[in-house]
Amino acid sequence: MKIYNLNLNIKQLLYIIIVYPFYKPYFFSVLGIMPFVNQLLFAISLIIIGLFYIIKLPRINFNIGICFIIFYYLLILVSSIISNSLNSEYYSLFAFSIGFGLLVNNSLKSKNEFLYFLSAIYFLLYIYVVTNLFTMLVYPNGIPSITNNINFPQYVFGNTNSVIKVVLPGLCFAFLYDLLKFKKIRMKSWLLLLMVWITFINSWSVTAVIGCLVFTFFVVYKRSGKNLSFFNYFSMLVMSLVVFIMVVVLKHESNFLQNIVGLFGKSLTFSNRDVLWINAINSIKSSPIWGYGVQSSEVIWQYIGNVHGSHNYYLDTAFRGGLVSLVFLIIGLFYFGRNISKCKNNLVKRVLIGTCCAYFVMWISEPFLSTEYLMFSIFFVLIPRIETISTYYYDA
């Protein structure tokens, strides 16, 4: 089967070059001279994105979601200054989030421009998924050059828990490409989703399996896009917050939740993540308002016991930016979510809802700070412009 049409025109190639530094897997970040190449391409991408907006002066159309993202990271800046922890990591996070958000926002100016952007993601995602699955089959103990411990195998996406962080937003963009270009989800995209499922089942990353299950359900189940359906954006967000408070914060043991998680061979602690949650909560109590700012991996390890944080997005957000940032984020999720309820039920709406709800579920037990900019581009750039995307969907 011919996987992807390689007859790319110049503009498609340009978008692939711009998108790649933002959308690359772990293996391409550590291979040989790639760290240097990636930094160079990232700088070039930022310059090109900046030029997209400079040539529009004095008329620049900022998505309100972009303003939200900027203000959110200003709160993180305040937290970092108060904690005396301002470092290059903060500027990197800011550049990635604002840069990618501006790129997505600019591409939405026309249907063709948006399709160029989506096709770049689609092209890269297909390559990543195929090569990652291939390496998993060829090197079941991990790619030798990047795997130090066979108990923690590393593949193209890194460890098995990292796959969903890159694949989920990629699936969202890939399915949107099909819907806007062909008015349906093509067989090759269902094949892509099947390969993703095989990847998750082969590695049995429970959080990823649950997230992919949620995404697939919303795409397939037509009534999930209806506002009165039990399975919708707001109900899943509220459920995520309730589970977070009851299970993570209050450590309430629910037989119902235990039975659901038990189907996947896990307990409510998700492989003893409760220790990390307790450490994070105790740390947050010492600095509840502004948190600790953007800290190095060593400092995070000292406070929480894991360089990747608490394995809970709500706690990681509160640790980094305090309750101020966490509350601001939650308010934003509810505020921008109103745009979904105004849009009539269609596949575009269900793909976006499925992506968001998959995140809500996975936030309970996985860290997402490293790929936060990909999430934010969906929550705060695409969702506020869902009517525009739906218009492109219905256009001939």
TrEMBL record:
The chain crosses the membrane at residues 12-30, 36-55, 62-84, 115-139, 162-180, 192-218, 230-250, 313-335. It is a multi-pass membrane protein. One of its GO terms (cellular component) is membrane. Coiled coil: none annotated. It comes from the Bacteria. The keyword 4Fe-4S does not apply. It is found in: Membrane. Residues 191-330 form the O-antigen ligase-related domain. InterPro entries: O-antigen_ligase-rel_domated, WaaL-like. Keywords: Membrane, Transmembrane, Transmembrane helix. This is O-antigen ligase-related domain-containing protein. It comes from Cytobacillus horneckiae.
